[in-house]
From TrEMBL:
Identification of the protein by name: LDB19 N-terminal domain-containing protein
A Pfam family the protein falls into: LDB19
Domain LDB19 N-terminal: 44-216
Gene3D superfamilies for the chain: 2.60.40.640
Signal peptide start-end: none
InterPro entries per UniProt: Arrestin-like_C (IPR014752), Arrestin_domain-protein (IPR050357), Ig_E-set (IPR014756), LDB19_N (IPR024391)
GO molecular function: protein-macromolecule adaptor activity; ubiquitin protein ligase binding
GO CC terms in record: cytosol; plasma membrane
Listed GO biological process terms: ubiquitin-dependent endocytosis
Length: 353
């Protein structure tokens, strides 16, 4: 047995509630080496496999507690004895993945995978099996940048940040921060930016439940597990711009951030079958207060001994790259402008002329 996948990489575009899904198509090849061989059945099955790596109360040895398998579709090419001659016999198949299905995921708490399993049984009882893993991705199309404002009472400081709508694992992204309200002319003081640090956290959650056989042996049948890990971080101690000539002063910072490939970050996963993945961007800015001269020039500044840590948190959408960004239902069929609408007319031939 062998398989050829004819469709492009499976990508569900848009959120789970809006996606039209992904179309899978391929060919399954059955090679017969004998002159003639009879087969009783030939079946292809597409399954969704979910593995909870942290089962309830350590019952990791129970497959029913940790594993969930759902059959999405079954192709029965023939179920009665069929003789096949020597050679390669090809059977086409296709399936539309619904848009709400979760993407292929593998992290420290759970693994979601899809598998095509083929099984051919001969009349002599010999069984031939073939398994092909299928990767399903989800891509959120980029949109306008997100603008957020944070204030930090009791000071007059406020931060404005522009974030990209989506970021990608193994890719770079930039975001801009503007810190206003750094001058206090009444007290003749100003805030000086000393350091800017950032990190991207991945929050994974799973809900583990027990199988009916173990439900009576544990006091709680449902446990929620959560794991937090850092998939990208960095800091800046210089390189920003400041302007003390405006009414309240400002700092402008451009941060070059990234999610490295070796972090093996998972994409955003909406809650499905008790598994979810979200990402958070945390930005911390350390500012120190100092006395300024009357002209607010660079020289003559004396520290007041006061400092603050400005901490901000933003939701980040980590998703696969969208490529061309065209789903299967939006692809236009080819246009053949050179082909006439109707076949050409036949000429009339009259004998004797």
């Amino acid at each position: 047995l062998s398989m050829t996948i004819e469709s492009p990489p499976l990508v569900c575009y848009g959120p789970a509630k809006e996606s039209s899904g992904a179309l899978l198509s391929g060919l399954l090849h059955l090679t017969v080496e004998a002159e003639e061989q009879k087969f009783d059945s030939f079946i292809l099955t597409l399954t969704q496999n979910i593995l909870k790596k942290r089962a309830v109360y350590g019952h990791s040895g129970c497959n029913e507690c940790a594993r969930t398998t759902e059959t999405l579709n079954t192709w029965r090419f023939f179920t009665s004895p069929v003789p096949l001659t020597k050679g390669v016999h090809t059977y086409p198949f296709s399936f539309l993945f619904p848009g709400h299905l979760p993407a292929t995921t593998d992290n420290c708490l759970a693994r979601i995978s899809y598998t095509l399993s083929a099984s051919a049984t001969t009349t002599e009882g010999d069984e031939i099996n073939f398994n092909q893993p299928i990767k399903l991705s989800r891509a959120i199309l980029p949109g306008p940048d997100k603008h957020s404002i944070r204030i930090f009472p009791p000071t007059n400081l406020s931060a404005s940040i522009d974030l990209p709508s989506v970021v990608h694992p193994g890719g770079d992204f930039n975001f801009d921060i503007r810190l206003d309200g750094v001058l206090n002319r009444q007290k003749n003081t100003r805030w000086r930016l000393r350091k800017t640090s950032w990190r991207v956290e991945e929050h994974s959650r799973t809900i583990s439940d027990v199988c009916p056989h173990r439900a009576t042996k544990v006091p709680e049948t449902v446990i929620e597990h959560e794991d937090v890990r850092i998939i990208g971080s960095g800091e800046m101690k210089r390189g920003w711009k400041h302007d003390f000539d405006t009414a309240d002063g400002k700092f402008e910072v451009t941060v070059d951030a990234n999610i490295p490939t070796y972090a093996e970050a998972s994409c955003k996963l909406e809650p499905s079958n008790g598994v979810s993945v979200n990402h958070v961007l945390i930005v911390e800015m350390i500012v120190a207060e100092e006395y300024a001269s009357g002209a607010y020039q660079r020289g003559g500044a004396t520290p007041t001994g006061s400092a603050r840590v400005l901490r901000m948190q933003f939701h980040l959408t980590v998703t696969s790259r969208s490529g061309l960004g065209i789903s299967w239902d939006e692809e236009a069929p080819p246009m053949y402008e050179d082909v006439p609408v109707a076949p050409p007319e036949y000429g009339r031939v009259v004998e004797g002329e």
